[in-house]
Amino acid sequence: MDVLIAIESPLSDDMRAMIGDLNAVLADLTPPEHCYHMSVEEMAGGDTTVFTARNGDGALLACGALRRHGAGTERIGEVKRMFTRPRAQGHGLAGRILERIEALARDEGITRLVLETGDRHHAAWRVYERAGFTRCGPVLDYPDTRFSVFYEKLLTGEA
């Protein structure tokens, strides 16, 4: 599938619609009190970079974000808001977005990527594990509940 992966503002109408669709999918899989969504306004903050995948016609197919935490030697990157529209799944778009997130994190000197996902998000687990993420205990200040699965990837070696 021919797509362009780029950094974009999350404040466009089609990104707002995509994040709305993502939130609806997550609401079907996880109790609302265990969903840790970022709004598009939060995604537009200076600590977050949003990547998108668009086809040749400009249609938005997938997205993901890098959110930065900490300062100095304790900087951690968090993978957030990963989503591929159902019609575009199976073409490796999430993996390509994760590669871009990792490359940016490495360029910025971040040495660890982490993420929280749901306990019923099996397709997401496959994407993260293919990208070299491994399961770990709770990260950042997420609560340790049965509804969350945590992953990390150390970026100290070669890309």
Question: How would you describe the overall organization of this protein?
Answer:
By secondary structure, the chain is an alpha+beta fold. It is 28% helix and 31% strand. The protein has helices spanning 13-29, 40-43, 93-107, 122-130, and strands at 3-7, 48-55, 60-69, 76-84, 112-118, 134-136, 148-154. The protein has a seven-stranded mixed beta sheet with strand order 1-2-3-4-5-7-6, with helices on both faces. The model has no long low-confidence stretch (mean pLDDT 93).
Poorly predicted runs are: none
Overall structural class, as computed from helix and strand content, comes to alpha+beta
Strand content: 25-35%
Helix content: 25-40%
Mean pLDDT, nearest integer?
A: 93
Count, helices: 4
Q: Biggest sheet: strands, sense, closure?
A: 7 strands, mixed
Number of strands: 7
Overview in brief:
The chain is an alpha+beta fold and 159 residues long.
Lay out the secondary structure:
Layout: E1 3-7, H1 13-29, H2 40-43, E2 48-55, E3 60-69, E4 76-84, H3 93-107, E5 112-118, H4 122-130, E6 134-136, E7 148-154
Q: What descriptive keywords fit this protein?
A:
159 residues; alpha+beta; seven-stranded mixed β-sheet; 28% helix; 31% strand
